[in-house]
C-alpha cells in the first residue's frame, strides 16, 4: 500500500458558482460553547456505541465501504441494462467465489507452512544463536500453548480459541454480505429520502453534491489501492518464487492482504518473509532476500507508482493517520486498521463540504 504518511485521494473540481458552500478553506469554529460541548458529547456517545456494539456496527461500516468499492462496477452493469438486483447478486457471488477459490488454493501451502513452524524453532535457534534466549522463550510458549487450560485453572485451549474466532468471523462475514447486498440493491434510496427531508433547495443541492463527492473520491481511492495491492501481490509472488521460497500464490495473497493495513501491514510482512526465508533457505544472505525483495516492492509501490497514479490529490495529516490507525485497531482489531484510512478520508470530505466543519477539515489536511 502507499506510504501511510501520505494518503492520496483524487478530488473532483467544482467552481464557487456551482457549489458556494463546498470550499476547501478553513472556517472558524463555532463560538457557541453549548454547541461545541454538545458536539463533543455526541462524538463520545457515537464512539461508545461503536465500541460496545462492535458486533453490529463493524459489519455495517464494512458493508458501506465495500459498497463504495463496488459502486463503479454497479454503474457499469446498469449501463449494460442489467437489473440492479441481478447486478448486486452477480458481484457478491463473484467476490464470494474468488474468496472460496483462493482459500481452497491456499489451504494446502498454509497447512504445510504451519507444520514447519514448531520444528523450525530449533533451526532458527541454530542460525541465530545471538537470539537464543528469546527463541527459547518462544519455544517454551509454543509447547505450553495447548496445556494452558490445565496449568492456568481451566482457561480455553488453542483449539477452543480458534473455533470461537472462526465462528465470530463467519457470523460477521455473513452479516456484512447481507447488508452489502441490500445496500447495492437500494442504490440512491437513502440519498433521495435525505433530499426529501431537507427543507431548502440549496440544502438539498448541498446534500447531493456532498454525497457525490464522498462516493466518487472514496470509491476512486479504494479501487486504485485495490488494483495496486493486486500488483504488489503478483510482484511479491513472482519474487518469492524466483528467490526459492516457493508457493507464490500463498505469498502473493499474503502481500495483497497486508498492504491494506498501513504501517502494521508492511512491518508484519517483512517479519513474516524474514521468518519464512530463515526456515527454508540455507545461505544466510539468501535467506534475507525474501524480506528485502518484499520491502523493495513496497517502497517502489508506495513512493513512486501510487503517487503517480493519484496525481490529483489532497493529503491527510500523517500524525492523524497514525493515531487513527492505532485507535481503530484498538477499537475493532485488524478490520478497524483496514478501515481507519477510508473513514478518515470520508470525514475529511464531509468536513470540507459542511461549512461549519471546514476548520476541522483544514485540521485533517496534510
From TrEMBL:
Membrane-spanning residues: 35-66, 86-106, 168-185, 220-242, 248-276, 283-300, 320-345
Protein's membrane topology: Multi-pass membrane protein
InterPro entries reported in the protein's UniProt record: AI-2E-like
Keywords assigned by UniProt, alphabetized: Membrane, Transmembrane, Transmembrane helix
Pfam families listed in its UniProt record: AI-2E_transport
Compartments where found: Membrane
Family: Belongs to the autoinducer-2 exporter (AI-2E) (TC 2.A.86) family.
Entry protein name: AI-2E family transporter
Organism: Kaistia terrae
Amino acid at each position: 500500500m502507499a506510504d501511510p504518511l501520505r494518503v492520496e485521494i483524487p478530488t473532483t473540481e467544482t467552481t464557487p458558482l456551482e457549489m458556494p458552500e463546498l470550499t476547501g478553506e478553513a472556517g472558524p469554529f463555532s463560538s457557541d460553547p453549548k454547541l461545541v460541548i454538545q458536539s463533543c458529547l455526541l462524538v463520545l456517545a457515537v464512539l461508545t456505541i461503536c465500541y460496545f456494539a462492535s458486533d453490529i456496527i463493524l459489519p455495517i461500516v464494512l458493508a458501506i465501504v465495500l459498497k463504495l468499492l463496488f459502486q463503479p462496477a454497479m454503474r457499469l452493469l446498469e449501463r449494460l441494462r442489467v437489473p440492479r438486483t441481478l447486478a448486486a447478486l452477480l458481484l457478491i457471488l463473484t467476490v464470494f467465489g474468488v474468496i472460496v477459490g483462493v482459500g481452497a488454493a491456499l489451504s494446502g501451502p498454509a497447512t504445510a507452512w504451519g507444520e514447519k513452524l514448531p520444528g523450525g524453532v530449533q533451526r532458527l535457534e541454530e542460525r541465530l544463536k545471538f537470539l537464543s534466549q528469546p527463541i527459547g522463550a518462544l519455544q517454551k510458549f509454543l509447547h505450553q500453548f495447548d496445556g494452558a487450560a490445565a496449568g492456568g485453572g481451566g482457561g480455553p485451549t488453542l483449539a477452543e480459541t480458534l473455533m470461537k474466532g472462526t465462528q465470530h468471523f463467519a457470523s460477521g462475514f455473513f452479516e456484512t454480505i447481507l447488508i452489502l447486498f441490500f445496500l447495492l440493491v437500494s442504490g440512491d434510496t437513502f440519498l433521495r429520502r435525505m433530499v426529501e427531508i431537507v427543507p431548502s433547495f440549496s440544502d438539498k443541492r448541498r446534500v447531493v453534491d456532498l454525497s457525490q463527492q464522498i462516493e466518487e473520491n472514496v470509491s476512486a481511492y479504494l479501487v486504485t489501492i485495490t488494483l495496486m495491492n493486486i500488483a504488489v501481490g503478483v510482484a511479491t509472488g513472482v519474487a518469492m518464487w524466483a528467490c526459492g521460497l516457493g508457493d507464490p500464490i500463498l505469498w502473493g495473497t499474503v502481500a495483497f492482504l497486508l498492504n491494506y493495513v498501513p504501517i502494521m501491514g508492511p512491518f508484519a510482512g517483512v517479519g513474516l518473509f524474514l521468518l519464512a526465508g530463515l526456515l527454508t533457505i540455507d545461505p544466510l544472505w539468501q535467506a534475507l532476500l525474501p524480506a528485502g525483495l518484499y520491502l523493495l516492492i513496497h517502497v517502489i509501490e508506495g513512493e513512486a507508482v501510487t503517487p503517480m497514479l493519484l496525481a490529483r490529490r489532497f493529503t491527510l495529516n500523517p500524525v492523524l493517520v497514525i493515531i487513527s490507525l492505532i485507535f481503530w485497531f484498538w477499537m475493532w482489531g485488524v478490520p478497524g486498521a483496514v478501515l481507519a484510512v477510508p473513514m478518515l478520508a470520508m470525514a475529511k470530505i464531509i468536513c470540507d463540504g459542511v461549512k461549519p466543519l471546514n476548520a476541522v477539515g483544514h485540521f485533517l489536511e496534510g
